[in-house]
Amino acid sequence: MKPSTILRSDALDILFENRNKQYGAYALRRNYPRHLYYGLGGMILLVILSILISRNSGPGPNLNGGIVSIFTIPDTLEPIPPPAEPTPPPPPTPAEPPRVAQEKHTTIIVVPDKLSEPIPEQTRIDSAAIGPVSLTGTKDDGITGPSPAAGSSTGPAAPIPPPAEKEPEILETASVMPSFPGGAGALQRWLSRQLRPQDEQDSGERIRVVVRFVVNDEGEIDQVQLSQPAGDPYDREVLRVIKKMPRWEPGQQKGRPVSVWFTIPVIFVTPEQ
User: Fold this and answer.
1) Distance between terminal CA atoms of the chain?
2) How many CA atoms lie within 13 A of 171 on its CB side?
3) Which residues contact 169 (CB under 8 A, 6 or more apart)?
4) Region entry Disordered: which residue ranges (predicted)?
């Protein structure tokens, strides 16, 4: 570099004198201050936008010209009895096994002719089993054995049905009731954001839907039922939102997690115009 240009050159030009300035290092060092200012400015603008958005956000969306979905939990709820369980049908009566023909075993005793019993013919004895009484039936196959006498308790026992599996117990109330993550306030905010307003609702009309479901011992939602339906599309919307709920904190009874019924009333309200 000539002495006359040294005073007019900056440190970067002096450092890269007689070097390849087309290489990336020279361009990066030359544009570094400008890139730094752009990065700081963008970060400051992003922080300001996030603050403005958080201030303007409300408790829930207001869509379709002011139609609002409001969720309420009253302090006391009337207990709703669980649906009656169907009575199981009686077990089928076991079929009576076929009776095998048999001939009465007669002990030969010498008595007067008028008191003796006739001895069965040999052909009948060959095709029947020997038993205490004479019975008519199928031909003896040598396996089934003699049929029990009338009034006798002997014979094949009726099959014992397998014990019914005990269904898990679902409580109506528990010492510690299930809770939505974050409490009732978080549940109300979550439902207000998830429920979609309906176009069929008139101005100033209040639609109430009561939904009942089970929070099992793992906090999952199960057996969703409508205790007080309001008709489509409100019932369908409430069922859709309840079934997509996150996992709850399960209820407890005697220090262990249990399955508990939980009831929620949901009210759709349209502001009067």
Assistant:
1) 81
2) 18
3) 258, 259
4) 77-103, 129-162
Q: Which residue would you say has higher pLDDT here, 156 or 267?
A: 267
Beta strands in 89-183 (DSSP E): 102-104, 129-131, 170-171
**Lookup result for tokens 């299930």:** 178
Q: Determine the Cα–Cα distance for residues 223 and 214; give it in Å rounded to an integer.
A: 6
Q: Which tens digits make up the pLDDT trace of 153-187?
A: 455 556 677 766 655 688 999 999 999 999 999 99
What is the separation of C-alpha 38 from the centre of its chain, rounded to a whole number of angstroms?
52
Res 62: pLDDT = 42
Percent of the chain having pLDDT more than 70? 60
Q: Do 171 and 265 belong together in one domain?
A: yes
Using CA atoms, how far apart are residues 264 and 28, in angstroms rounded to an integer? 62
Beta strands 256-269; 251-253: pairing state = antiparallel
Task: State the average pLDDT over residues 34-63.
Answer: 78
* Same-domain pairing of 122 and 234: no
The answer to the question of residue 92 being in a domain is no
Whether 179 and 265 map to the same domain: the answer is yes
What domain range includes position 181? 68-80+167-269
Specify if 171 maps to a domain: yes
